[in-house]
Design a protein that fits this description.
This protein is an alpha/beta fold and about 475 residues long. Helix content is about 35%, strand content about 20%. The radius of gyration is 25 Å and the shape is elongated. The chain starts with a strand and ends with a strand.
Length: about 475
Amino acid sequence: MFLSLSVSGEHAPDLGFVLYKHPDRVFEKSNSKARVTGFFPENRDDHAEFCLAVEVDPVERVRGVNWDRGIASYVEPMPFLAASHMSQAISQALGSALNGTLASKDPVIDARVKAAGVKPWPLTIKVGPVRCSPFMIERLFVELGWKVEIESHALDVPGVDHDDDRPLHVFTLTGEATVSAALSQLYVLLPVLDPNRHYFYDESEARKLFDKGGDWLRNHSDKGLIISRYLSKSRELRDYAHQLFGSFQEKKGTEELIAEIEEEMRDWEDPDDNSPHRQRHTRIIRDISAWSARKVIDLGCGEGRLLERLVVLAPDMRVVGIEPSVREIDRARKRMSNNPGRTLDPRVELVHGSASYGDERFKDFDAAILSEVIEHVDPDRLPNLARSVFGIMAPRRVIVTTPNGDYNRVFALRPGEFRHDDHRFEWTLEECREWVSNVAATYGYDAEITPVGGRSADADESYGEISHYIVFTKKDA
């Protein structure tokens, strides 16, 4: 993977000073998985170009990881994609330029560079390859003032059928920007183009997004999409990032704002939040309340946010949460033990398990909930899930929410591309109807599908809303 940044005209002699790289020297840095090389292929008075190349070891990248994909694990395109590896290389090799640091030991050059470096330069940036929809590249960069040109290249990977429909792209950006602004946009947006991050991240990644995004991200019309894809593996971090950006005020410093948000996030429940997540939960709570359900099981309860809202519906509620992640179960236990004694609410039972394995202890509940769960199940295992939920546990009603594949056109995703890297599918309305019809007929339920989650103002109504909302009702109920 590579990145080329070039400038022509009066600013060409200053590129090396702004990047903190000597044109006559080669920058090299290696770790266990990749080698980063930076160099100037051209450095003239009227034109200068700096290149950054990242070589990822495909064997080291998958060492210790159970890919279960045979030779495709080693020859897939991921090691060659300019996504999170390149973003990390920008930080390692060009950290000073990324942060806007301008200085030189020579007083004359120092004054010149500081004066020139804060002004927009006519830049040409070429980077690639990336794996995403070309519409996504244009959608993210054109709004920032860049002219975008895209070259597409097909890559056939043995044993990976869908890669034929997902070509790789090399794109060129031309426009005027400070070097710092251009690097910060690449640093944030390259992982957004292909959010399969190669490293673990935590709260500090949300802070980096807030810090590096600056005004351009706060004002970007696709800010929500950028945050969602940049922090695709953690809903909690996405909530945190949205709070950071949503609460930003120019008069407050970054450190002060982050401290305030962290304090709020310890016990955050925003009554004005109208996010898709919030809309789904509100709809579920409304239905459970209308049905006067008293025994409810949340299959895939996560950290217990929905359980927390369910248990207060009535004094005699019995709420069970089943979750395969031990970490999420621990978080749910802490959330549901918010009392002076730190004891779990006696009306709540948390079980480490999976919805795919039927448990007769939870048979004949008033309602079962699978909110944004089934899309994480491999399609060939969906019959097991249906048998467990509808055949063995057989609740009176079942609520299922799952992403609406028709709505993915709003996100500029191509067929086969999903919003989250752990999703196995995202059904269109017709695909959803087919599954719902089969399950209802097999297990004796009536079913209704409606949209939920909201729709952006510019989205076509025919796409529906963010998610499908499915209610199954037992025919003898």
